[in-house]
Structure formats: C-alpha cells, structure tokens
Amino acid sequence: MVGDRPVGVRLVQIGPDDAVPALVGGDLAAEDHNRVASGDRTRHPEFELARWSAAHLTPEERAAATVYTSGEHCPMCAAAHAWVGLGRIVYVASSQQLAGWLGELGVPAPPVRTLPVEEIAPGVVVDGPVPEFTERVRQLHHRFHRR
Ligand code: ZN
After folding, report:
1. Predicted pLDDT of residue 19
2. Which of 36, 74, 93, 111 is the most exposed place for a label (fewest CB within 10 A)?
3. What percent of the chain has pLDDT over 90?
4. Number of Cβ atoms within 10 Å of the Cβ of 6
C-alpha cells in the first residue's frame, strides 16, 4: 500500500479556565499525521505526539493539553497518551465507526483489537464522535482505500 493513512492529530494547550474549548482553540503546541507508509506501522501521529509531549512539555502542561484527532486513538496510542499524562482527547470518528468502514471496503482487520480509549485509559476525558465531521472522515478513508 502506498501513502499514509488519512489520520491527523493536533495537540492544543488550553488555559485552566477553558473548560470547553472550541474544536480548534487554544495555542497549538504540535501536530502530526500518520507516517505508517515508512514501513513502521507504529508511526501513528497520536503516539508521536505523546512522545513529543513527554520530551517538550511539563507534566502540568501535558495534563492541560487537549489532543484533537480525526480518528479515536488505537490501544497503543491510548496507552501512550495515558502514560505521559496528557489531558482530554477529542476525536471525530470512533474506532468502531472506522472498523465498520474498513470492513465495508474489504480492508483486512488490524493486528490489534479496536477498543474504546476509555477501556485502555480510564482516567482520560474523551469526547467523540463529532457527527458534524464524521462523514468527511469516512469519505477520506473511502478515497484512500479505493485508489
Ligand atoms: Zn494508534
């Protein structure tokens, strides 16, 4: 398969008074996209951002950060997110939705079970799916896997 899967994330630092930030609010700290086309299938942007935040942010900054992502974290990334103490996750499409779409497209199941973030990282505040944007993410995956 050629190309990186259509997944993008951004890590946003918000002030302590921003209890409910806008979808893209606060100061953008870092952003990344999927790099699995390199041949290393652990190169998920959520995992990269967790490691970046451990190297560049204080524990307090990580706890106050929100990670916005097009797709819910996989178990590997949810674990990394929790281990480095990052804050809230906002995802557009759930892992369950993605698994359904990939199944429709005949894409082989991943080698790791898809589980909700809450099952891997019960202390992390998670919001999603975001219905206003879910169809756009579904279309991105359809375009990617149909080419
Ligand atoms: Zn992942």
Report:
1. 35
2. 111
3. 44
4. 17
**Nearest by Cα to 134 from 100, 111, 106, 108:** 100
Q: Which domains are assigned to the chain?
A: 30-146 (3.40.140.10)
Cα 76 to averaged position of ligand 1 atoms, centre (Å): 5
SS (H, E, C) 8-38: EEEEEECCCCCCCCCCCCCEEEEEEECCHHH
Q: Supply the pTM of this predicted model.
A: 0.81
- Ligand 1 centroid to Cα of residue 30, in Å, is 17
Residue whose token pair is 């990580």: 62
| CA dist., res. 127 & res. 91, Å (int) | 6
106 alpha carbon to ligand 1 midpoint, in Å?
Answer: 20
The residue with tokens 């759930």 is 94
Tell me the C-alpha distance between 110 and 12, whole Å: 29
Share of the chain above pLDDT 70, in %: 76
